[in-house]
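To whoever is on call:

I kicked off a structure prediction for a single chain this morning and the downstream step that reads the tokens threw a length-mismatch warning. I double-checked the sequence; it's 174 residues and nothing unusual in it as far as I can see. Pasting both halves so you can look.
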Amino acid sequence: MSNTPQTTEQSQPTDSTELERLHEYYDKHIQALEAAPSQRNKTRFILKVINNSEQGLAVSEHSLNLNAEILASLQLSDKDVIAFAQDFPYIRNLGSPSKTLYRHFIVFGDQTRGARVEFGLRVNTTFGVFTPTITPVRTCKVTSIGATPIACTARITRALQTEPYSFSMEVTLG
């Protein structure tokens, strides 16, 4: 997901047609990742970020273990689109209680102009007479954190209702 299609002027879209192509490029990759068979012990999380602002937003903080190449692919230029996918371990033993499987954040920008994206998965377990009921609870949140507010929205675009409860999230900034 870290390879961005090349457009004129160093991968930055210069008009609406190029921005549409960038959306299409990432949408196809996201669809391919979503269609890939799920591994029983991995939850796939996919994040698409759309920067509609006139300002670039670099990743300033995060709670993930990212190498330099992945971190570089998450840097948002103005009027840019990026996508990120990661598989997290899904370990839930039979009869286990409710459990947070993962919870992470990525901050785009800084305290002047920025947004904090939070995502995660918790599995709530209630025990019935014959079998437990397992309910996935997904975190999907974005908050403007800078002195200059950024309009931002987050939504879940796809959520599997069976284990390992993979999901996709779309964030729009600006």
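Update from on-call: the warning came from a stale cache, not from the record. Cleared it. Sanity check on the structure: The beta strands are 42-51, 59-62, 80-89, 99-109, 114-127, 132-144, 152-159, 167-173.
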